Amino acid sequence: MPPRFATDPAAAIATHVIASDDLESWLSDQPERVRTWVGASGFTGALGQSLTLPGEDGAIAAALIGYGTDARRKRGRFALAQAAPRLPKGSYRIDSGLPEDVAEIEALGWLLSAYRFDRYKDKSPMNAQLIAPGGVDAARIEAIAEGEYLTRDLINTPASDMGPPDLEKAARDLAQEHGADISVITGEALLEANLPMIHTVGRAADRAPRLVDMRWGDAGPTLTLVGKGVCFDTGGLNLKPAASMGLMKKDMGGAAAVLGLAHMLMATGARLRLRVLIPAVENSVSGNAFRPQDVLTSRKGLTVEINNTDAEGRLVLADALALADEEKPDQIISMATLTGAARVAVGPDLAPYFSDDPLFVTALEAAAAGVADPVWRLPFHDPYESMIEPDVADLDNAPKGGFAGTITAALFLRRFVTDSRYAHFDIYGWQPSAAPARAKGGVGQGTRALLEALPGILSR
After folding, report:
1. 196 burial class (0-12, 13-18, 19+ CB within 10 angstroms)?
2. CATH number for the domain including 69?
3. Both 36 and 157 in a single domain?
4. Which residue intervals define the domain Cytosol aminopeptidase in the entry (predicted)?
C-alpha cells in the first residue's frame, strides 16, 4: 500500500509530544487522575516511549509520545518513529510538543515506519496512522515516502524476480505513471549502439544486459541520473566467496535509488528536464564471461585493463556516463553500491559522495542536515590518478594494493565525464539492523538530500 496520512482530524486521538525535561510542567496542568495514571505507567518522556490515556468511558482519550533529551535525539533520527509502531490501532493528531522545524521530518519518519516488504510473506501492518501536522506539505511528504518505498522494494526483491528484465519493467512502470518517455537497448544491440562494456559485463548471463533510458520534462535545467543496475554480482570469474555474495541482490541499489529519486522529482512537479540511465546487467559465470587481463574499449574510446572481474560496476557505469556526458547536461549524478572500501571508511549509515563543485557541496550538505539524510564528502584526490593507469591500457579497473579503493573507483568514473558537472555517490543501500523509520533491508541513501538540494544546484 502507498504511504498515506490519515485524513479525518476530528476522529483522531489527540497526541502530545513530551520531552523528558518538560514532563513535570505538562503534568502540572493535568487533572489528578492523569498524573496518577502517568506515574503508575512509568512514562518519563524518554525517547520512543508511548502511553495512551483512558477517558472516563475507558476509551483512549489521548496519547503521549516521549521526545527524550537533546543529547539522546542527536544520536539518532526520526524520534516519533520510535514510538509510532507501539501505539494502538487508530489515527493520531499531534496537538502539542512537536517543534515546527522538525514537523516534516517526523511526519515522514512516521510514514516510513509503516514500510513492510511483504511480497513473499504476509506481515502485520502498522496500526497507528498520523494526521499530517499543520503547516507541512502532506502531498510532498507522501511523494517522498513513495519514492523511498520504491527504492526499498526494488533492493529487497531477490535476483530471481529482479533481473535486468524486471528492473526494466520497474522503470517502464514508473515512466508510465508519470508520462515519461523510455527506450531500452538490449543484448547484441548494445554493441551496435557503442555500449561495449555494458554488453561485456552482462553477456555471460541468461538474461540479456540492457541500457534503460528514461526522459521526463520539457523545460528547465537538465539533470541526468545514472544508477548502477547490477542485479546480481557473483564476482564473475573472480568469484566472490559465499560471505561476500550473500547480499549481492542489492548490487542494483544505485538503480533503485535513482528510480526512487526520479519518482520524488516527477511526483512533486520539479521544473527540470530529467534523464535516467540504468545499465542493467548480471555479472555471471559462463564460458563467455569476460576474463582477468582482458582489455576492453569503452564508449569513450578509453581502454580498460581488467584486473578483477568483480570490479564490474564501474565498467557499466563508465559507458552510461560517457553517453550522458555527450549531451552536456547541467548536472550528472551517479549512484552505485560500488565499493566495500566506502563501507569501511564511513559505515553503513552515511552516504559518501564525491564532488569538486563548491555550490553542489554547500547545497547538498545543508540539505542533508535539514532532512535527516546524512552524507559525507570524500575527495577526488588527483595524486591517486596514477593508481588507475596501468602499463597495458589507459585505465585499470582494479588497482592493486588495496589503498583508497573508493577514491580510485570515483576517479575511474570521473574519466568518463569531461563536459558536465559531475557528482558520484558510493552508497551501501542496506540497513543492517532495524532502526526508527528504517526496516532491516534495502534503504535509500542521499536521495532525499538531493531532492532538497537540487533546486539550488540547478538554478545557476
Report:
1. middle
2. 3.40.220.10
3. no
4. 308-315
